Queue: 4 jobs
Job 1
Amino acid sequence: MNRKTEKSLIVGLDIGTSKTVAIVGEFQPGEPVEIIGVGSHASRGLKRGVVVDIESTVQSIQRAVEEAELMAGCEIRSVYASISGSHIKAENSHGTAPIRDKEVTQADLDSVLNAASALAIPGDRWVLYKEPQEYLIDGQEGIRHPVGMSGVRLEANVHLVTGAASAAQNIMKCIQRCGLSVDELVPSAVASARAVLTQDERELGVCLVDIGAGTTDISIYTQGAIRHTSALPIGGDQVTNDIAQFVRTPTANAEEIKIRYACALAQLATAEETIQVPSVGDRPPRRLARQTLAEAVQPRYEEIFEMVQAELRRSGLEELTRAGIVLTGGGAKMEGVVELAEELFHMPVRLGVPQHVSGLSDVVSNQIHASGVGLLLYGAGREAVRRPAGAGVARVGGLWDKVMHWFKGNF
């Protein structure tokens, strides 16, 4: 496909508990990323964000990537991939480095970031993500963009996100088995925040809650910088299981009922509304009041939000999140979720859909794709600094490379 050569292609691979999504974007510095391809496939190889079956995970990555390649008319070689799970932990660190030429350069920023990351991190954990919160030059605080400023000593407060090395290695192994290289693994909470939060919210203080199928990812921002990240081992799958048990129907049917009829706040569903529920085996389907279904769903969402609130309190940042809560992810699509969250948190709550991108509108305007779009935005920021245009994706010859890679791997 003959696209303008000055544009770079970038790929976000969101490996979730219920689905794997590959999103291809085209970008050039100074312009919004344009989404030109998307592929999605059901995922069965993960449990609560962590790989439990390599073969199934490889298969779902392969299917999603092939679909995205077909739509975008390109060959994918490398991806920015998401990582989640309750093994993800965050801490705030401090680093110091001398300013080499008495004027701060990008190299000085890199060395102070590395100094802050050189904590005694156990061998079974990896630093997945690091982001400077603010800089100090010769003791002067509150500096956000120090490049070009004069001084002798540069310090930085840095937010570090670490994860279990084994969990990260297993995700990378699955991606590499598909003949792809991993540009970076990015925590889902960080990626989603890139896609759905506004700069004003980050400044004022905001808590992002991404409710996925297996995990609920949280990131908290105040004064324009990330302060806290975590992943809770609870999500939409538990809601599906509750419905399956409550109405005694198979899980696949329960998932469909959840998507089509469920409501997270019982008072929004009237008792007159009824739905048809398939039964197990060859028993005839039954009718059920939609309000009764909501009464089965509401307690689980209350539990999710109580766990989020406990995490918010534990972070010590509850009083500083003045912009309130932003909900995103597939679990936030249900009717009544925002209203229930407002009742429980006593602060403003809004639904977050991906922003800052153009292109395929069904991807852009859907909170299910918050993490995938966020990976594109994160990658575009990294690529603009690091790599010349057109490097990550080959338009010609790539397919032959892949065939040769497969051939070598199998014979």
Job 2
Amino acid sequence: MLTHFTASGEAVMVDVSAKPETARRAHAEGRILMQPTTLTRIEQGAHAKGDVLGIARLAGILAAKRTADLIPLCHPLPLTHVEIALTPNAAESAVWCRATVETLGRTGVEMEALCAVQISLLTIYDMCKAVDRGMCITDVQLVEKSGGRSGHWTRTASTPSSD
């Protein structure tokens, strides 16, 4: 049984040294809702602060690499691949973010994928807040993970309460 607590209730990092190294991958996603004019500025590259999506993509990659510095008891992992896809959606007046994170290790990369999405979207918010303070980050969730003892998992429409 994996636990973050000792028998006396003290918090510890889980010892994963006995687990075999396996290829692990996680996909997470989320979106930021905004005013249509804000999305148009982003898409046209007309934002005063520069390439919003390019900077957000870089921020997400850096966040994935630094997840162990942000989440207590999270293992530092040697990531082998991080990809951030940022897709504007005019119908929703939103930017969707999907992060794919991979490693060859003893523990999964779900937290790294989720951090990458959050920080990418927070970067968009930070860069655009002067023109649109009402933006809303929403739907951040793990979509799929593979590798490790628990194997493959994919979110279904009814997953939120079944985890």
Job 3
Amino acid sequence: MTITVYSKPSCVQCTATYRALDKLGLDYEVVDLAEDEAALQDLLSRGYQQAPVVQADGEFWTGFRPDRIKALAVA
């Protein structure tokens, strides 16, 4: 399973997402939207306007979602 966390600097919900993923031992890649303009434009075109945006197995969600993170650990 590939997990990508699109984040921005000083983002409290992003940090909470990292911690939850780390606690469950899930591997993930971080894309800093302040440095990756193409990724930012892609997410904006999909309608996302807040960070983090998490992509896992083709699905996207936004914000800190412990329920979705726990579901990833079960999968």
Job 4
Amino acid sequence: MAIMTAQEIMDLIPNRYPICYIDYVDELVPEEKITATKNVTINESFFRGHFPGNPVMPGVLIIETLAQAASILILKSPRFYKKTAYLGAIHKAKFRLMVKPGDILKLHVSLKKVRSNMGVVETKALVGDKVACSAELIFIVADRKEKI
């Protein structure tokens, strides 16, 4: 059962189609951890070129999907609500499994550190019980720019 829908996610983070990758949030413990879901479908625009005849989700987009889940966790904190979380660094990224159409990517993010306007999270993207990707991500949080 989803505790945050796609629309609620878009109300919190600035990402929009075609680069809003989180379908729903399964679990959220504010300032601690989040589990979210990305349903990987053959209709994803990146599969047209990556790779014809052997569609594989690009590693950089798996990291982006993890970063979006981390943004939700960070921005649900009262001190960062209505702000924007920017990816500042990627450490210890490891890719262990190809993600293909039909896979359900479960994103697990744990908050490790928060200092004034930055945060450190540990992340894992799983397909079933297998780790597809893991990484430590560093975030910088800034005021959200107003629409003009």
